[in-house]
Amino acid sequence: FNSSCPRPSEQDCGMGQAAGCAGLIRQSYIDEDEAPEADKRPKMVRRLSLISGLVDTKGTDDLTKAGYSDDALSPEENRARGKMNCGVRTKKGFVPGNPGKVNQDRFVVKWGLQNRDDVSLFGAFDGHGPVGQEISQYVASNLPMYLEKQENLTSEPKKAIMEATAKLCARLKIEKKEASRFSGTTAVFAVKIQNKLYTANIGDSRSVLCTRVGSDSFQNIALSEDHKPETPSEKKRILAAGGRVHPLKGFYGPAGPERVWLKTQDIPGLAMSRSIGDGLAHTVGVLDVPTITEYQVSSLDKFVVWASDGVWDFMPNQEIGRLCNKYAPDMDAAAAAIVRRACSLWEKNEQVVDDITIVALQLHGL
């Protein structure tokens, strides 16, 4: 492929944005005295959307509240919020040579699902591909509606979440047929019913709960598990469907994480084994079926976060609890601090910065 192309697209070489990743890898190696060791290769190749040639001025330009604030809730929403506090922050990533890059992350915070004070929804969605922001926006906008239509939401939460997600994905394939062929999104969200969290995950965004184990220390409990192509059960399914699983072929050998490819073509190069959208990848075993966990919240559990992988790539989980505790009950400030810290770590370690989004919840009074 043409690695010299500064903004390659699927029309340039048939490799889609994966080609752009390889081009930047090559450039980063040229700046070194010699090729770096495998474990020192840039993580930037894990996100194909980082090298998008698209310009979308509607993307978030800087650190922003993304339109959410506890202070702007309706009386009904405040009643559902009770003594809990929530903060949201999102920041557009940075790619050299593409100042118009769009923020493809989205989020959802919905207090009082089905007009019930004890049912709420929180989540983060990380779009990828040429128009990944369309897919993540569609999911974030429509998920609350599909969940609210489930009459069994509180009686059979896991079944209801599974059914609502299936209906949403089926509709997306109709309404966003062309956009979702090479673009998609992750989804990590939770329906909180009374003191239980039902967390659904598709892809590699992540939810972590912070429970207190000392006066100022926290233990992190994973509420979701990343869906990666190298996971044995996921890889077996993809191979059985006719796909391939291996890293991008860089100039100095394999580069970056394991990816999903068609049997005879080096596309689409998806770095996760489950996603919403990504129609081409779904022909070779990628699924839009969530895994769902159930967690009983206790009095020691203080914070929950839902975040795109821009937060987790370089930031230790333990630091999340520390920053939440430092700024609580101002979770807006906590979310802003986490995004700033994650961004600084990206700048320190990479030539690019991924989109970064977090929803941070303080389980106050539980």
Task: Give a written overview of the molecule.
There is one protein chain. With 366 residues, this protein is an alpha+beta fold. It is built from eleven helices and 15 strands. It has helices spanning 10-13, 17-30, 75-81, 132-148, 157-175, 179-182, 232-240, 279-282, 309-312, 317-327, 331-349; strands spanning 85-91, 105-111, 119-128, 184-185, 187-193, 196-202, 206-212, 218-222, 244-250, 253-261, 268-270, 276-277, 291-296, 301-307, 356-362. Strands 2, 3, 4, 5, 6, 12 and 13 form a seven-stranded antiparallel β-sheet that branches. A hairpin with a 2-residue loop joins β5 and β6 (196-202). α10 (317-327) runs antiparallel to α11. It is globular. The protein starts with 9 loop residues before the first helix and ends with a strand.
Topology (elements, then pairings):
Blueprint: H1 10-13, H2 17-30, H3 75-81, E1 85-91, E2 105-111, E3 119-128, H4 132-148, H5 157-175, H6 179-182, E4 184-185, E5 187-193, E6 196-202, E7 206-212, E8 218-222, H7 232-240, E9 244-250, E10 253-261, E11 268-270, E12 276-277, H8 279-282, E13 291-296, E14 301-307, H9 309-312, H10 317-327, H11 331-349, E15 356-362
Antiparallel strand pairs: 1-15, 2-3, 3-4, 3-5, 4-12, 5-6, 6-13, 7-8, 7-14, 9-10, 10-11, 14-15
Helix pairs in contact: 4-5, 10-11
